[in-house]
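Two entries, shown back to back:
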Amino acid sequence: MFRKMKKRALKPIVKWAGGKSQLIEEISSRYPNGLGVTIKKYAEPFVGGGAILLDILAHYDLDEIYISDINAELINMYSKVKTDVDNVIKLLHSYQEQYIPMNNTARKDFFYARRNEFNSLIINENSKNSLNSAALFIFLNRTCFNGLYRVNRKGLYNVPMGAYKNPLICDERNLRAVSAALQKVTIVCADYRASAEFVDENTLVYFDPPYRPLSVTSNFTSYTENVFDDAAQAELAAYAEQLMAKGAFVMLSNSDPKNSNPEDDFFDKLYSRLHIDRIFASRMINSNADARGKISELFICNYERRIL
């Protein structure tokens, strides 16, 4: 398999619940043969933190790349980093220069003022195409509790301030590297089904949807005000079948229900025709430190598994 190495690694701009930074080696070892040669397109309809996207961009020379998400503020952030990275960096440097020297009380005032500003943009529907929204999105992610992105039923960001002593609010070098890599990427705010027109037999598609909760108390799907329940998981599986009928190469990730219930065969039945691997990940975003640790996740694909 041709793997075009580049000089600079690309890191996710934001921390994201369920992000794949720790699983890049596991997942990349399972990319299909022909990626970068006969497979010349890539689509990631639940882009989130974009760890796999950035690995693809860093190592393969593809003709077309498509990413999407229904989180309008996340997509706006990627769009502004792509098209106006200089001003995103300028705003982030300003936040960093103000925030870092402050004492804890002043930091709280600054953080919640910025959170209110971000939510005002959402309320006024200015967050979907706004430089300020993009910079605030990154600032809040870098300074909030555990790097969470969570919204309430009104769609407003509600994560409290974190306790980081010296957060890197503006990673200028990485922002510029990601911006350069995104120049060839089509960025869309849309439901995952909008990717249908892009996908063909030369496309690798990666689905990393909101995970099915392992228990009632672990139900965290609030990246947006929408809910991704079992019916939605089944709809996604049906959509993946449609893309496979086109000849597309499909990869999916999800939680492994057997971590909490060995008898739970939900995904084993849902994807019974596909290859299912159980790989191990560390849950880093959890309010309970005792609940952080290695658990198995599912990696599902429609081609022969190949471990490098």
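entry 2 starts here
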Amino acid sequence: MVRFFCSMQKNRCLVSDWRGGYMNDFTEGKITKQLLLFSAPMLIGNLFQQMYSVVDMIVVGRYVSGGALAAIGVSMNVIMFILSVLIGLTTGASVVLSQFYGAKEYDSLKKTVSVSILSLLCVAVVLTLLGTTLAPFFLRLLNTNDDVFDDAVLYMRILMGGIVFPVFYNMYTAYMRALGDSRRPLYFLICATMLNIALDLYFVIGLDLGVLGVAVATVTSQMVSVVMCVVYATRKIPLLRVSKLEYDSRLFRLILRYGTPAAMRLAIVSFAQLTITRLINSFGTAAMAGITAATRIDQFAIMPVSNLSSALSTFVAQNMGAEKEDRALKGFRSALISMLVCAVFMSIVLMIFSHPLISIFLKQGDIDTPEILRIGGEYLNVMVVFYFLFAILFSFNGFFQGVGDAIMAMAFPVVSLTIRALSAYALVGFVGMGPEALAWSIPIGWGLGGLGSWIYYKKRLWVGKTATQAMSAASQD
């Protein structure tokens, strides 16, 4: 049984089941407070999630070599390319769940969970086989240096062998967030991250296993996180409890409608990133290691903006599902202001501390350390000045995702990164820049992508694309 009540003291509406699990209803209450409170646990969770790869890199960078750091960096780019299909389907299903939740259509919501589990499991098995088998082929295409090639293949094969764990973790946490619960996944992730750190230190420093050790530690920790997450969701959240897996072709098509553009976006984005990685590799191992370290710092820095974008997507989806467009638009404006403030703050912090942060990843006394530090510092110092452009682009992205305009939520980030890749090659080939060209190309992509998003938003071309409207139209055909 599900019962509804409003908590006036907290200025928000909640839905509770008899087991005591609470979900946020964003169709009522103070907008800015809701967005910030909802995104805060997501931010902390993503910080810990990033710790999986960052701790791997810090441990191998400081206790193995800069070459090992470069190996993990190049293999992670290939892994993200392969993961894009699965993450895209998860994104599409979570939007559908949010809109069904806002419209109070709980039967369709539970069927969506069942359909997505079946489809993601099948695709995960196929991609695991492809990723482990073709790892050397992918890395050769990226012109990976011979001195890091073997370690890169080893790391990639182990992580691809356990790809089902991050996929199902991301699926269940996305569904919890779609229903308004961003706290529980955080608790599970903190436990798993602490385990990952302990295993990294034990395998690399204690047993001297190098890249093998950090790979096994990562997969083991991911397995623990998904087990905790799935057990909690099935026991405590009736809307996510699936007693029997069943297939619904109409819901599967709806998931594909929202998920395929997201998968294509991530695939194209990852492919563009791979072309950039190939360009980075052409500058040698020091450039690979330096930009890998700078990129990891950048990923931490943009998290507040990215998480506000995700929170905005859930907020907009629920309100559009409840036919409250004015409230959805107010949420967009509130989120944009908050994202700009975060972006400016992080720009200032990184301009001051860029070199000390990059040095965390480096082994003192290594012959390549000074060059790695120089390249990484130059890359980061150029890019961070333009974080406000990233905030603008991803505020629109979160809004388009929430209203169900999956095509445009895909298109503008893809256009942005494609422009970045083309700009990077142009700056190197025609202007004669070195690795710093890779940094200057980033704000070019953000700026043009944000401009296109603003024009599309002002013309209101996103109207009429929610999941509930699509289901209603389909039932009338």
